[in-house]
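Key idea: predict the complex, not the pieces.
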Amino acid sequence: MRRLVPAAAVFAVLLAAVAGGGCGARHGEPTPLPDFSAPFVFGRFEVPADNPLTRESVELGRLLFYDRRLSGNNTVSCSTCHQQRLAFTDGRRTGIGASGKPIAFNSMSLANLMWGPKHFFWDGRAPTLEAQAQVPIEHPDEMAEDMDRLVAELGADERYRNLFDAAYGGISAVAISRALASFQRTLISSNSRYDQFLRGEIELNAQEELGRKLFMAHPDVKVSLRGGNCIDCHSQFLTSGFSAGLDGFSNNGLDDEEQLKPGLQSVTGDPAHRGMFKVPTLRNIALTAPYMHDGRFATLEEVLHHYDGGIRKSSTLSPLIAEATNRDSESLDEISLHLSEAEQAAIIAFLNTLTDNDFVTADRFSDPFVRK
Amino acid sequence: MTRATNVAFLPLLAALLLTTTACSNKQEDAGIQSGSPDSAAAQRDVEAGQALVLLRGLPTLGTVHSVAIVELDPEAENFGAILQEFELPDLQLPLHHLYYSPNGRLYSTGLDPKCSLAEIGLSRNAEGSAVIDGVTCLDTQGQQVGEDIIWHSVNGKEYMFITFMGGTGVDQADGGSIGVFDPQSNAVIKIIEARKSKVAKGAPYLLYPHGISAYQDRMVVTSTIHPDLATGVGNEITVVDLNTFEPIQNIVIEDAKPVGFPSSPVELLFVRPSIVPGVAPAVLVNTMFGFETWKVPYDETTKSFGAPVKLYDGVKAGTGVPLEFYGNDTELFVSHSLPGIVKRYKLSGLPDLVPSGADIQTGPGAHHMIFYTSASGRKLIAVQNNLLNLGNAADNDPTDVDFIAKVNDHTITVHDLGSGERIAQVSFKDRYKKGVENVEGLFGSGFVHHH
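Result:
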């Protein structure tokens, strides 16, 4: 049931706007975000010129992210489906929001969102983080909130009025989206054991190192190069999909032709994109089960088995998957990496090095409403 | 090419310059069409034209050595601007070469004994802009005058190999070493050193190693010149067995002395299947004072090297001081300091040198280079035109005389990669009162390797 916003609250917002000289009047300039540093190897990122990362916008975004008032019935917040301890996923096959009904997709991890495909959601329907932020708020099964009503509700809270004023010169639906996007941009995971390895701070053990090498290699039987083929879709440092164009989307053989979901096609209208979904980051992958856009695999072992014999053929199946094999004499009808059990275990061992304990425990990303 | 201590090498350069200026300037016919913007332009990384540049302070001009990020996209309004600079006031001599490790760490070799090897910290700020966090000089256990770096796996273990032209002390007349480093911790694992005066007569030795390349369990290094540019000059390459980390063979790369000095092999490239699929392995060698490019065939079944074959004769072609090898997906590029050109060859034609287009006319001292695209998607090559990076006599610089200044243009020239047309240039001496010590790395994902 939608919670009604008292008329007094709406009046309070109007009064505040009038008293403050209207939207756009800030109490001083926002403060540049202090102590921010992103890994060089992650590559270039861009922050929208009209939504720079500032101390005020990030603080506000964090508050909003954890505030259940963002849902129509005040029962769920963004953090309901994106829990820090699970690398901002929820452990469910698909999320359950304000309506209590299962959502269509698995909750995506929110790590390193400034890099990778410049399209958000599994089907890429949001072109920016700002656009993405508003969708779940208004979705009837997710947060089921009306943006105008939300603006009024938050405007009745003096703390929010002050925060919005400092960050954006006033409260508005756009400012809500921008603040949420700003906070999400700071969710950088860069202190896993893999990161420490990249920085030269630690060594990986033999199994992890074998897994790393398999991860980074496309198999080539002609030169006896064994590979897990992961890097064809998951980039070397970010382990996310690639950012150029629609390179970060792929049909990884989950379904045969008849069962293919629309995926990216629902956004582009192009039949060639049917069954293609966003390639997710593998950062903290050990914490983000279940896997795939519909959460069909409960464990990483199931994921590896999928790539090692479970691939379903279809017209849009990634050719990089279709022709990848570590065996020279396979039947033409069979698509499989033909990894040994030890090799699969090694890849999983490497995937476990992507867990960033700092990321999932850092105070700066945590629920500000929880007293510690 | 390195200059580490003094200028006793000047007469040699004078002879060299006179020789090459007497050569013709014959150019090969152009056969390459201009590159054109492509559909990728709209999605181009705006950082693609930002180069990492090592700058050399010029003593009489009051400037200090530094690491800089420079905008080299000629379509950018701030073309030639230094976007970030990290100065190194404590170093008498500059950093020299730049290399990204396979894990994306940035290293530099150095000429100053205080910093023969360094790791350069890079990051990004909240605007996404590049930040040079710092330069950490690493312990080389006394090895001096760092030159080239390669990362190579031997029997399943990864190593970082570095040539030190000054070996364990530039006071040694026949010094030189290869440092074997742990690529994670940067710790020295072993110093490969075999001075001619210290090994048995006729035994393989190392001398002033500079260029380095490896294939399977064989590594090859050049013997170039003593860092003081006066004590001695080499004319061989040395083969190192990577199973034992010991030199096992010297191969002479010389058949003439156009300037009266040994050939001075400088950079080399082990052409191998990972560079050209299916290629017959061979080592290409540029001889700095022989003005030549040679091929040394390699039989991987017997692990034996064949007789060197001269592929390119600079005296006949009117070029001198060939230096670097760089490659992209389709071509191999070789810089010739005199008169200042970059020659280009088909990658598919290796290990032979099959021209792929007209020479790129750069500037005196043509040396290191980078490849990138402009904002509109135009494919570009930028070339550092500085051989020795000495100062200018006109500035009363004690490290300079006129004829050396002629092979030190102090510029980076930017050319269309397809046609070779010069589009723009930055004179670092005019604009920043500095010389260009090195440009062979881009900031971001455009990692450049040439070994």
